[in-house]
TrEMBL record:
Functional summary from the UniProt entry: Adenosyl-L-methionine (AdoMet)-dependent tRNA (uracil-O(2)-)-methyltransferase.
One GO MF term attached to the UniProt entry: zinc ion binding
Protein's recorded name: tRNA (uracil-O(2)-)-methyltransferase
Primary subcellular site in the record, as a coarse category: cytoplasm
Length: 295
């Protein structure tokens, strides 16, 4: 609708309509094929000769639709624009569209769709059809904000991690656990498990307010710090690396040794902050026990 001379290329992927998620209407087709037909129909209604092609890309959704030529002369642009506005309004109010064709619509096809929809274009829409395409439409920002807790300041994340870990460690008496190294039995505090709600109740209001602005909030932050925590069924645990299952992939000894050396790019949180240190000896821990082990 931006201009008569514009062309378009679209690679349909996620199933969305003008005002929300696309609702299926035909069970005889796959969801992907039905959605492709819908996107093609939008092009036809907007007065394009729609072509379909398949891209050479490594994806299951690689069918594209192209509109290069119009089906109406430039002099009819105002009329077609009104029909497009009506079509958009009907998509919002009518749950079912009866037409489903995979070939181009001529002018009769387009008028049939509008007549069957059975709604007149409101006066205010007629007056503003050329300037306001979709009332209330709010485009997303040009730069999409990252809200998965990954962009939070490192010192803020470290403070939350330390606070939650101390809360879990002090929530229960020290537990006696066997250390796998040499068969000796050492005491290593695994702490207690708490629900996300219980953890949140112990955090201050400013911290919670900051986390609520992120998708997933506290749970996402804790899952991002999987070296320290394990979140299962809404409960938070201190991760015990002695219980982690070794990789099933068998590697030659030389490759295994090299990959283990290259893996130590981060300091071990337990070595630095846990009152009992790390539950694993240095040679078995995937994280560095001190800066001298960093690669």
């Amino acid at each position: 609708r931006s201009s008569y001379s514009c062309c378009y290329f679209v690679l349909p992927c996620c199933y969305f309509d003008f005002h929300g998620k696309y609702s299926r209407r035909q069970s005889k087709k796959t969801q992907y094929r039905e959605y492709l037909d819908f996107v093609a129909q939008v092009g036809f209604v907007c007065g394009f000769r729609v072509e379909e092609d398949c891209l050479r890309i490594p994806s299951t959704k690689r069918v594209c639709l192209i509109g290069k030529n119009r089906t109406y002369p430039r002099t009819e642009r105002a009329l077609i624009d009104k029909q497009i506005t009506e079509y958009i309004n009907n998509r919002q109010t009518c749950p079912v569209v009866t037409h489903d064709r995979r070939v181009g619509f001529n002018h009769k096809d387009q008028s049939d769709i509008f007549k069957e929809a059975g709604s007149e274009l409101p006066e205010n829409e007629t007056e503003t059809a050329g300037t306001i395409w979709m009332p209330g439409f709010q485009p997303r920002e040009k730069v999409e904000q990252i809200r998965n807790c990954a962009s939070l300041p490192r010192d803020f994340v470290d403070d939350v991690v330390l606070s939650v870990a101390n809360l879990l460690l002090s929530a229960a008496p020290q537990k006696s656990c066997s250390n796998m190294n040499g068969g000796n039995t050492n005491t290593w505090n695994q702490g207690e498990s708490l629900s996300l709600k219980e953890v949140a109740e112990h955090l201050n209001k400013e911290t919670l307010k900051r986390l609520k602005s992120e998708y997933g909030g506290l749970q996402t932050l804790l899952k991002n710090n999987h070296q320290v925590f394990e979140v299962l069924n809404g409960r938070v645990h201190i991760r015990d690396w002695r219980k982690e299952k070794p990789s099933r992939k068998t590697k030659p000894e030389v490759k295994r040794r090299l990959s283990a050396e290259a893996f130590k790019t981060r300091l071990c949180w337990f070595f630095l902050h846990h009152p009992d240190g790390c539950s694993l000896p240095s040679e078995s821990c995937p994280y560095a026990h001190g800066t001298e082990e960093l690669r």
